[in-house]
């Protein structure tokens, strides 16, 4: 068994170059090399501490790199008071952290790394190159550049499995078990989705055993399954098709419960309708608009077994105009070609109407026009957590001090998606990860200073 201790004999490969003997007291462990962990490491290293970053994977920042595949949405340019309201869970706890390191800080942090950003039409902020790889490369270069202090030491293929009876961190590593007793620890283990990229949520039982309250990890920004599934014909023809420029309304979790989900369609005009797009999947719907609704839909499903989305297939048309067009004489034309020529409805939108509206209702212009403007889609399940963009749930804010230190474990701080907050896509996820990573790093620095742990620099 390998053993690394605060003082005395250590395995040199686990300690950053330039640290030895008494100085080892200043070693800080960061577990998880995603954006939250790397930010904590950056802050600690800048304060002069020797930082060891551990990750179970063989390379760092895999989910961050994946996030860059479709255009890395780093943050959002909307005003700060609006920004913080996007966190449907944990917003009050995150507010001071976002004030300390929010959207503007994310942009200047990226700029410091040589990555310019721009604001897209929707207010979302992206790197000019759209990708995560150049940003991650520049960040890793800085973390390992001796010009800025002790290079951060990376220990990959080290899976953290908990604490030993003596309080050491226990890792499963290629050479066997490794025990580490750092001066402070930052856990940044991610949520529980896309486990092949590293964050598999297996840390949850380990923390609970230590008396840490952890809310169950749930899929967020995820797809949903429709009631009874799509028909074979619809699925084969339209799975993967985008439903472009539609309106979508749903019951907000904060609103009064609706007795029967179907009754929601009655109130459809009263619900806030958002414009955007989503994608038909083999079993239901996913994509931007659905992700924005996911936390409300998930909570409806868990309370009543189902949730209802109201789709407006022609958001630029008034209801009267739709009714007029649907009711116009169609002569010998089929209903499909009538809807195509008069309303431009075809493809997946038309397919959806045929899928969800009965034949009889399709023949009734009034009912059909109402369906085009507010088509109820009943959802009965979230897609599995591993498919979700992010996870809700995690370490409860009540289980931590305001500095993000675990009340059950002095000197252990938590950051990133493993905390119990939730938000839609739009750059809010990465911003919260970076903000909590920054805060946890800063708090660990204060903790080390208060406990008399000198930095490596001041000891020399
Ligand atoms: C397809 C996709 C696209 C996305 N796009 C965006 C986007 O454009 N904008 C946005 O804001 N967000 C986006 N996200 C979400 C964002 O990537 C995550 O919220 C963010 O990466 C979480 O950061 P983190 O540091 O908390 O955790 P992670 O990035 O998940 O990192 C956690 C790290 O901990 C390691 N780890 C886990 N358990 C252990 C253990 N026991 N021992 C050692 N190491 C361990 C993992 O290997 C991993 O490297 C996207 C996510 C996905 C899946």
Describe the structure.
The protein is an alpha+beta fold. The chain folds into 2 domains: 2-218 and 392-459, FAD/NAD(P)-binding domain (3-Layer(bba) Sandwich), CATH 3.50.50; 224-382, no CATH class. Helix content is 34%, strand content 21%. It contains 17 helices and 20 strands. The protein has helices at residues 35-46, 62-67, 80-85, 91-100, 103-112, 133-143, 203-209, 232-238, 264-267, 288-304, 319-327, 335-343, 347-356, 359-362, 365-373, 428-450, 456-459, and strands spanning 2-4, 27-31, 50-54, 75-76, 117-119, 124-127, 153-155, 159-163, 169-173, 176-180, 184-187, 214-220, 224-226, 242-250, 274-280, 284-286, 307-312, 375-382, 390-395, 412-414. The strands form 5 sheets. Strands 13-16-15-14-17-18 form a 6-stranded antiparallel beta barrel. A 5-stranded parallel β-sheet has the order 7-3-2-11-20, with helices on one face. Helix 4 packs across helix 16 (428-450) and helix 11 (319-327) packs antiparallel against helix 15. The longest helix is centred in the last third of the chain and has 23 residues, at 428-450. The protein is elongated, with a radius of gyration of 26 Å. It starts with a strand and ends with a helix. The model is unreliable at 1-14, 18-25 and 258-262 (pLDDT under 50). The structure holds flavin-adenine dinucleotide. Residues 31-37, 54-57, 62-64, 66-67, 72-73, 159-160, 188-190, 194, 198-199, 203, 389-390, 416-417, 427, 429-430, 433 line the site of flavin-adenine dinucleotide. The site of flavin-adenine dinucleotide (FAD) has 35 residues, from helix 1, helix 2, strand 8 and helix 16.
């Amino acid at each position: 068994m390998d053993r690394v201790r605060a003082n005395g004999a250590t395995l040199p490969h686990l300690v950053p170059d330039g640290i030895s003997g008494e100085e080892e007291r200043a070693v800080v462990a960061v577990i998880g090399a995603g954006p939250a962990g790397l930010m904590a490491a950056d802050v600690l290293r800048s304060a002069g501490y020797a930082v060891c970053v551990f990750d179970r994977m063989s390379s760092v920042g895999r989910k961050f790199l994946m996030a860059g595949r479709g255009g890395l949405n780093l943050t959002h340019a909307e005003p700060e008071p609006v920004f913080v309201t996007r966190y449907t869970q944990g917003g009050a706890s995150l507010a001071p952290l976002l004030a300390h390191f929010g959207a503007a800080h994310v942009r200047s942090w990226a700029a410091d790394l040589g990555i310019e950003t721009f604001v897209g039409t929707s207010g979302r902020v992206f790197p000019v190159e759209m990708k995560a790889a150049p940003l991650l490369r520049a960040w890793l270069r800085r973390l390992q550049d001796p010009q800025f202090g002790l290079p951060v030491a990376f220990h990959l293929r080290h899976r953290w499995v908990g604490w030993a009876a003596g309080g050491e961190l226990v890792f499963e590593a290629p050479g066997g078990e490794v025990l580490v007793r750092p001066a402070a620890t930052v856990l940044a283990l991610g949520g529980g989705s896309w486990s092949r990229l590293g964050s598999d949520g297996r840390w949850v039982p380990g923390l609970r055993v230590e008396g840490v309250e952890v809310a169950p990890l749930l899929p967020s920004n995820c797809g949903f399954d429709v009631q009874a599934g799509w028909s074979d014909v619809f699925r084969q023809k339209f799975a993967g098709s985008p439903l472009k420029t539609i309106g979508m309304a749903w019951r907000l979790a904060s609103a009064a419960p609706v007795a029967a989900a179907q009754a929601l369609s009655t109130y459809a005009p009263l619900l806030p309708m958002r414009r955007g797009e989503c994608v038909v999947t083999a079993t239901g719907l996913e994509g931007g608009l659905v992700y924005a609704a996911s936390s409300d839909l998930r909570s409806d499903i868990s309370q009543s077994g189902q949730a209802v989305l109201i789709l407006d297939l022609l958001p630029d048309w008034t209801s009267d105009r739709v009714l007029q067009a649907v009711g116009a004489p169609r002569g010998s034309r089929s209903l499909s070609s009538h809807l195509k020529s008069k309303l431009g409805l075809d493809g997946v939108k038309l397919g959806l109407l045929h899928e969800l509206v009965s034949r009889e209702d399709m023949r009734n212009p009034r009912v059909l026009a109402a369906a085009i403007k507010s088509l109820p889609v009943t959802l009965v399940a979230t897609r599995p957590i591993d498919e979700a963009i992010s996870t809700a749930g995690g370490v409860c804010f009540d289980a931590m001090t305001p500095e993000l230190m675990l009340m059950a474990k002095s000197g252990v701080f938590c950051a990133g998606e493993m905390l119990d907050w939730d938000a839609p896509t739009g750059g809010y996820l990465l911003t919260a990860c970076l903000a909590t990573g920054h805060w946890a790093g800063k708090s660990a620095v204060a903790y080390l200073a208060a406990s008399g742990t000198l930095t490596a620099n001041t000891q020399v």
